[in-house]
Amino acid sequence: MSIKYNLAIFRSGRPSANKDPNYAPNTTQSVIPKWYREADRFAKNLFTKEYYKASKDVCPFPKEGTTDDYGKIPTWKACPAIMDAFTTGYILKTPCDLTFFKNAHGIIEVKVEDPKYQEFCTPRPPMMQFEHPLGYHRHHFAWLADWGLELPEGYSALFMTPMNRFDLPFINTTGIVDCDKVNLLGSFPFFIAEGWEGTIPGGTPYMQILPFKREDWEHKIEILEDSETYDKMIKNREFYRQPDGGVYKNKIWSKREYK
Question: Does residue 254 lie in a domain region?
Answer without folding.
Answer: no
